[in-house]
Amino acid sequence: MNAMTDNRLILVCDDEPHLREMVAEYLSERGYGILEAASASDMKSLLESKTPDLIVLDINMPGTDGLTALRELRSSSEIPVIMLTAASEVIDRVIGLEMGADDYVGKPVDLRELEARIKATLRRQNLVHAEIEQKDKVRGTVVFGPCRLDLDGARLFDKGGDEIPLTAMEFSLLRVFVENRGRVLNRDQLLEQAHDKGWEPFDRSIDLRISRLRRKIENNPTKPETIRTVRGIGYVFD
């Protein structure tokens, strides 16, 4: 079992028992948890009590077909879905992707390809979640020493609630520090991420800008505790 499969739950929905069991056995041997559904209604019932990390969903099923099941699923869930389609179902593949499927695999199923596509889809999902978490971290108000930075309004306030004037570049630098809390950044990284159009290699004006910021946010600018210098490397916001 590896980091990609650890605790990952896959729901396999297909009306063909042999194919469903073959896929379930193959993925189970590779460390995935498995749920099986023989129809869209079975899948719906399972989803009432379980939340899989990904669904492998056949398009061509009796009763409620895979595309209809996908449309119903997308009305309330963003669980990644890989569709199983016959080689002749090109239109269904396009429709499935337009309706929110994340990928598709043709039948007859190549199990190695299916596993590779599952891993790729889960990686993309991880990146999306990480991006959302990062955005959540940089919303609202952040404490900088005795000050508070309003990220949405681009305003800095002292401990008494009075606004401290900020230049656009100063706000950009503070935002970069928030996005990289605990990470040491060198001068080039700070200037690049702050989108300073006047940036040039080996530009040390960042030191002056940090000094000005410290006078605004530190209790004692000569002994900074909020934006610290890491000798020989750069700066870090703790």
Your description of this structure?
This protein is α/β, with parallel strands linked by helices. Helix content is 41%, strand content 20%. It has 8 helices and 11 strands. The chain has helices spanning 17-29, 40-47, 66-74, 90-98, 111-137, 168-179, 187-193, 205-217, and strands at residues 9-13, 33-37, 54-58, 81-86, 103-107, 141-144, 147-150, 155-157, 163-164, 227-230, 234-237. Strands 2-1-3-4-5 form a 5-stranded parallel β-sheet, sandwiched between helices. A 4-stranded antiparallel β-sheet has the order 6-7-8-9, with helices on one face. Strands 10-11 form a two-stranded antiparallel sheet. A hairpin with a 5-residue loop joins strand 8 (155-157) and strand 9. The mean pLDDT is 87.
> Strand pairing plus helix content: what structural class?
alpha/beta
Q: Main sheet?
A: 5 strands, parallel
Strand order of the largest sheet: 2-1-3-4-5
The arrangement of helices and strands along the chain is: EHEHEHEHEHEEEEHHHEE
- Intertermini distance: 35 Å
Shape call: elongated
| Alpha-carbon Rg, integer | 26 Å
On the 0-100 scale, what is the average pLDDT?
A: 87
The share of residues in extended strands comes to 15-25%
